[in-house]
Amino acid sequence: MNAAITIILIAAATVAALLTSRHEEDGSPQGRTAWLRATVYWLSTILVAFEMAAGGLWDLLRIEYVRVVLTHLGYPLFLLYIIGVPRIPCALALLAPRFPRLKEWAYAGAFFNYAGAAASHLLAGDRGSQWIGPLILAVFTIVSWTLRPASRRLPRPAPAKEPPMITWCVPALIVAAMLVIAFITLPKGAPPNMSSRLRVDGPGLSVATESNPQKYLSSPLTT
What we know:
Number of helices: 8
Mean pLDDT: 81
Strand order of the largest sheet: 1-2
Distance between the termini: 32 Å
Low-confidence stretches: 197-223
Shape: flat
Radius of gyration: 23 Å
């Protein structure tokens, strides 16, 4: 039932977006290819925006589903607020007209969100059914970004002269030097302002310290 309602909502939203996009562009799409491009763009955009909005609401409500997933992956539950708050504005930015630079940020945030979720499940040793969903949503994000219309893109910059190779080498050498310095100056032990005893980072998650080297999860959801 819930799946059917979701499919109907996404289909209706896609049709509505296609109809209203005629007022955003200079006329409606002309030709079969243009209509196909617009349909794929809006379908992928609606899917990503819906997941971002729904996921943000789930995170902010801290429903059991997301709490179990986060605890399983080893993340603190306060992360729900950190990733949940920007997801709803992200959905709005993807759907609203204009503001191309804001859309670039929204696309980047959505992609990193889904790529990070897929990587987390992979590194946790989960089955493919757990990480394939975020991976597909990351692909939809790329499709939406690639097919976005001209009014939703940043203006093309004026062509610039190709910089000499030295301008690429110097930044790379600087970063390499930074990494060497960071490695040489690695801090020893825990931060001085933190106790050596076991410290709880958030509800349901503890971190390892010298006095308790084994990292473990303890939560009402897992006991």
